[in-house]
Amino acid sequence: GRLEAVTQQMGYHPQYLDSFLKTQHYLMHMDGPLPFDCRHYIAIMAAARHQCRYLVNLHMLQFLRAGGDPQWLRGLDFIPPKLRNLNEINKILAHRPWLITKDHIEKLLKISEWSWSLAELVHAVVLLAHCHALASFVFGCGCEQDEGPGGRGLLKPLSPGNQCFCEATAGNGCSQELLRINRKRSLDSCMELDSLRERMQRIHVETESREETRLLQQDREEGEGQEAEVGVQDGTEHHSDLSVGFSPLADTDGEVTGATNLACYMQDPDFGYQDFARRDEDQTQVFRVQDYSWEDHGFSLVNRLYSDIGHLLDEKFRMVDGLQSSAMAKRQGCEPSVFKRGIWNYIHCMFGIRYDDYDYAEVNQLLERMLKVYIKTVTCYPEKTNSEMFDRFWKQFKHSEKVHVNLLILEARMQAELLYALQAITQYMI
Which chemical reaction does it catalyze (predicted)? Predict the structure, then answer.
């Protein structure tokens, strides 16, 4: 039940890691509009959109630890309508955030037995964006470890066994304050595994038959042979492949400790990313940062409705922008700030967000085609990332540089989703 693999990778940039952990802890474990079990269930819904077993399993355990109803883990049909109504926004934000409108907001906030408050909705939106973006990082850095058939382990762990990040880096300049924070954080604490395994086993017995498991395994094997390399400008919709093996995670006694089939946590599984409108199409859809920006609009709105989260998010955005990338930029023959801005603006461009003061011809000059393919895949359909792509696109980068680029993807994607969602909330309020 740990974010161990994530903290190991982010540990190449300790200052960013500290900022990330503070935000993660605040979202999941500190005072806020949403009940703690609902927070983890929303995280499950978000991670399932990208088939991210690593995050789904983490939050399933923490959901139960927070006192959540085990029946909810049977799928969306077994949760309260209020939570289930969040599915539409979850789906849109994960794949095509430009489609979200004030009507989606109004539908959730309208007065009824299952209505959301504005503060609850903002908390939920931040959670969804956070987990979608974190799924990109998980796949991009290979944290989706090999947990049985179909698992992916792109990178070797930094440290052996179950050593936590702080123990692994204690001799490498990890500050005492960071050690204290990480050890204290409940998101990385030990879980009461015996009782959780018993609950998971009960759920498994109730919901899964041996025949269904056999069919899932068969579908997975067929699906693995159909994966193809993703093109950078093919304009094709990439459907989620639910046949990728979500086999139960079991210990030596065969007790189930993880998700078996993520399809039960989503509706409309074929809904995926599509290329944003081309230049020769109607440009009214384009999101212009000059009209609605994080600094001038989003920050104040989110901070007003969900106290202090704006400051934490803003610190995280600034932290990733301040990370050093001189070697990376030198290879591309430009200044570090120019290289980082090129990556950031390219990611936002894929979501229809444009900066009037930026020359987009720079993107093609700064980012070679194979790097663009990698960035687009991790950003838009991270579940398609595989070890072959990782090895092929990143030979000239150091490991810390690879992590840095994936951090840029994480933060740029999260900000893009937040901009669309917060703009829709603003329009509803107006």
Answer: a hydroperoxide + L-cysteinyl-[protein] = S-hydroxy-L-cysteinyl-[protein] + an alcohol
Residues in Cβ contact with 317 at an 8 Å cutoff, skipping those fewer than 6 apart: 294, 411, 415
**In contact, 312 and 26? CB cutoff 8 Å:** yes
Report the run of H or E that residue 3 belongs to, with start and end. none
Distances (CA, A) of 300 to 71, 174, 215, 310: 38, 33, 50, 7
Q: Does residue 334 carry a catalytic annotation?
A: no
Q: Which two tokens stand for residue 29?
A: 């474990």
Q: What are phi and psi of 412, to 5 degrees?
A: -65, -40
What is the pTM assigned to this prediction?
A: 0.76
Q: Which residues of 355-391 are buried (b: 16+ CB within 10 A; e: fewer)?
A: beebeeebbeebbeeebbbbbbbbbbbbbbbbeebbe
**Which member of 52, 143, 164, 174 is catalytic?**
52
Terminal Cα-to-Cα distance of the chain (whole angstroms): 42
Q: What is the secondary structure of 112-178 as a DSSP string?
A: STTPPPHHHHHHHHHHHHHHHHHHHHHHHTT-S---STT----S--SSSTT--HHHHHTTTT--HHH
| Cβ-based neighbours of 129, under 8 Å, separated by 6 or more | 93, 414, 417, 418, 421
Residue the block writes with tokens 């050890």: 183
354 backbone dihedrals φ, ψ, rounded to 5°? -125, 145
Cβ–Cβ under 8 Å, residues 48 and 80: no
Query: How many angstroms separate the CA atoms of 55 and 200, rounded?
Result: 16
Q: How far apart are CA 430 and CA 426, in angstroms?
A: 6
Q: How far apart are the C-alpha atoms of 56 and 257, rounded to whole Å?
A: 11
Helix (H, G, I), strand (E, B) or coil at 354: strand
Q: What would the pLDDT profile of 393-403 be if each residue is shown by its tens digit?
A: 667 788 888 89
By DSSP bridging, strand 287-288 and strand 353-354 are parallel
Quick check: 102 and 344 in contact, CB under 8 A?
no
Burial per residue of 159-180, b for 16 or more beta-carbon CB atoms within 10 angstroms, e otherwise: eeeeebbbebbeeeebeeebbe
pLDDT tens-digit profile of 111-150?
Answer: 788 899 999 999 999 999 999 999 999 999 888 754 433 3
